[in-house]
Amino acid sequence: MLTPMSYPDGHEGWQTSDHATARAVLADPRFSARPELMHLAPAGVDMQPAEPGAFLDMDAPEHTRYRRLLMGKFTVRRMRLLTEMVERIAAENLDAMEAAGPPVDLVEAFARPVPAQMICEMLGVSYDDRAHFQHHAEVVTGSGDGNAVAESFAALQDFLRELVKAKRAKPTDDMLSDLAGTELTDEELTNIGVVLLGAGLDTTANMLSLGALTLLEEPGGLAAVRADPESTVEELLRVHTVTPFVVRSALEELEVGGQLVRAGDAITVQLGKINQDLGRNAKGHLAFGHGAHQCLGQQLARVQLRAALVALAARFPGLRLAGDEVMRRDDVYMRGLGELRVAW
Ligand code: HEM
C-alpha cells in the first residue's frame, strides 16, 4: 500500500510502511536508487550524479559491476574470520575503559572506536596512520558541528586517495590491496573506500550504542546477549533500525499495490516503521534494506555487534546507566546516541 507524501523540492510522491510493498519496490529494477532523481534537495538545488565507484547511488548495470567485484570480499565466511579481530579490538577498548574508571561515555570509549578500528584493519591503514585516520573517522561519526564533519570527511577522502596509490605500489594483506589488483581505477577505488566509510561507520557505531542502551534498560539484557548473541542482535537491529528509511524513484509508469505511480515519482520506504510492526523475533526484518542494494556489510555489522556487545557484557556484568539522561542524536537519515554514560 502507498500513501501520498510531499518531498523537499515540492514533488508530491509516495511512501509505504507495508512490508510486502517495501520488498516489491526494493526488488524491482524499474525503481532507481539515483539520488538526483529522488526530489530530496530543496527546489533549485541540483544533486550531482554518482562519481565513478560510488555504487550505492547507481542502478544496474553500473551498480551490478561494482557489487560483483566487492561481493566476494564480504562473504559470511570471510566476515566470520574477522570475529577474532573484533574481539581483540573490543578488548583493547575495554581495557582502556577499565583503566579510566567509571563513569565513562560508552559512545566515545567503545561504540565509535570499535567500528573505526575495524575499518582501519580491513582497508589496511598502517599503524603509523591509525591515529590520524581514526580521529577523522570518529569526527565523521561524532556529534560535532557540520563544518568539522565536512573537513574530516574531506581529510578521509584525501587519505584514501593516497592509500589507494600506496596499495597499488605495495599490496598488503587487506581488502583494499585485493581490490587494487582488479580493473578498478584509482578514482573508483577511492570512492569505493568513501562509500564503505560512509555506509559502515556511523551505522555500526549507532547500533552499538543504541544496542548497549537497550541491554542496560532491559532486566537481564546483558546476560541475554551472552547467552544468545545471534537472536539478541537481530532483535536489536529490528527494534532500532538506525537507517529509518530509503528512497527510490520510478523510472517508468507502473502500478504498485493497486496504485498508479508516474515515471519520476519518488517512494520513501519506511524501514523503521515496518520493522516496528513485525513484532518480536520476526524473521525478515528490513534493517539492512532489501533487493539489489541490500547492505553489503551486513555480515560484518552482525559480527561486530555480536562480538563487541558480548565482550562488553562479559567484561562488565554489572554495567549500568550513570545519570538519568541519554543524549539522542537522531537526524532525518540516521538514529543514534551522542552520549551514553555508564558505570560498573
Ligand atoms: C548496523 C549496521 C548497518 C546498518 C543498519 C546498515 C544498513 C544499510 C541499509 C539499510 C542499506 C540499504 C541502502 C539502500 O537500499 O538504499 C545499506 C547499504 C549498504 N551498506 Fe550497510 N548497514 C550497516 C553496516 C554496514 C557496514 C559495516 C558496511 C561496510 C563496511 C556497510 C556497507 C554498505 C554498503 C556498501 C551499502 C550499499 C550497497 C549497495 O548499494 O549495493 N554497511 N546498509
Tell me the CATH architecture: Orthogonal Bundle
Q: Radius of gyration in whole Å, from Cα?
A: 20 Å
Order of helices and strands: EEHEHHHEHHHHHHHHEEEEHHEEEE
Low-pLDDT stretches are: none
Summarize the structure.
With 344 residues, this protein is of the alpha+beta class. The protein contains 14 helices and 12 strands.
Structure overview:
This protein has 344 residues and is of the alpha+beta class. It has helices spanning 19-26, 62-71, 76-80, 83-100, 106-111, 113-123, 130-141, 146-169, 175-180, 186-217, 221-227, 229-240, 271-278, 298-315; strands at residues 3-6, 12-16, 31-32, 104-105, 246-250, 254-256, 259-261, 266-269, 320-321, 327-328, 337-339, 341-343. It has one domain (3-34, 69-343): Cytochrome P450 (Cytochrome p450), CATH 1.10.630. Helix 6 (113-123) crosses helix 7 (130-141), helix 10 (186-217) runs parallel beside helix 14 (298-315) and helix 11 (221-227) crosses helix 12. The protein is globular and about 60 Å long. The mean pLDDT is 93. Protoporphyrin IX containing FE binds at residues 33, 55-56, 67, 195-196, 199-200, 203-204, 207, 242-243, 246, 287-289, 293, 295-297, 300-301. InterPro entries: Cyt_P450, Cyt_P450_B, Cyt_P450_CS, Cyt_P450_sf. It comes from Allokutzneria multivorans. Belongs to the cytochrome P450 family. It holds the Pfam family p450.
